[in-house]
Amino acid sequence: MALACALALAFVLLLPRAGAHGEGPGRDGGAAGQGRTAAHEHCTAPEQRTLAPSGADGPTISRIKARQGEKRKLIVGVDQNSYRWGYRNPNNAGAQLEGFDIDLVHRIAQDILGDPDAVQFKAIPTNQRVPAIQQGRVDMVVRTMTITCDRLGEVAFSAPYFRTGQQVLAPRSSPITGYASLAHKKVCTAAGSTANTQLTEDRTTGRLPASTDISLTVPNQLDCLVRLQLGEADAVVTDGALAASQAAQDPTVTLKGAPFTTEYYGVAMKKDADDLVRRVNQILVEYRANGWQASYDTWLSATLGKDATASRPPVPRYLRTG
Questions:
Q1: Neighbours of 221 (CB within 10 A)
Q2: Among 95, 97, 101, 94, residue whose Cα is nearest residue 121
Q3: What is the reported pTM?
Q4: Rounded to a whole number, what is the distance in angstroms from the first to the last CA of the chain?
Q5: Tens digits of per-residue pLDDT, 263-290?
Q6: Is 126 in contact with 197 (CB distance < 8 Å)?
Q7: Is 158 helix (H, G, I), strand (E, B) or coil?
Q8: How large is the average pLDDT for residues 9-32?
Q9: CA distance linking residue 62 with residue 56, whole number of Å
Q10: What CA–CA distance (Å, rounded) separates 46 from 65?
């Protein structure tokens, strides 16, 4: 137990911390509340609010291709401590990043730049994903990022590439049985995460007991696992896909109860990067048919099961533009 905690804490300390850009907890940094309200008023089925696929280049892709020499790379925000999604494997030469999200990044780079390794990875905390895109620090974020109506007011998304849902992670010895049993418990979530937003909304509506303490938020989701290991939290709420990987890292914790939401991961880009969004959607059409299952089998089947049906994204539906 102590070793698992120490290893997790070591990874956390290596990551950049948030706060330089003034984002509040649970909001992923980014734009003002007015934009989020407008997004909610006109948004349903956010996973369907993306542009139709196209293989054509445009101004965004042309700028990426115009980078010279060593700088001619796709700049992508990723995680480096989410086991089997985006993490540095110390057993590999150079501790290269690997995982399900990383496979997708290499596929996108292959299509746009003709080289799967033409990527500059930038490790980004959970609550810096939106600011990193808006400020132009990255071309895109591929980091288990859920497509939501709030976020559509701040960034553009591709079609979904993975389906998941919020679940509870707690010590095996805990009496917690799932989401409905969190009364009088201290729950940890990552700032800027959909879990944080969900708990806040559910406490307001009464779905979550008022006695549930949801005040503990951290910059990175892995920080919650550390807090759980240290006994500073009773439970963690996060995407079930991530929680399953964390349970694989630390056998003293386990998933409690079934998923209580349905969510979809997408590739996030700038709102005006229409050509890049369309290109990524074209890549995803091909990737779902050839590549997605192989990546799932390699990275996720051990934690989520060999049958990938529940994790496969739905058949894409796109915005009508004319």
A1: 26
A2: 97
A3: 0.85
A4: 57
A5: 999 999 999 999 999 999 999 999 999 9
A6: no
A7: coil
A8: 35
A9: 10
A10: 30
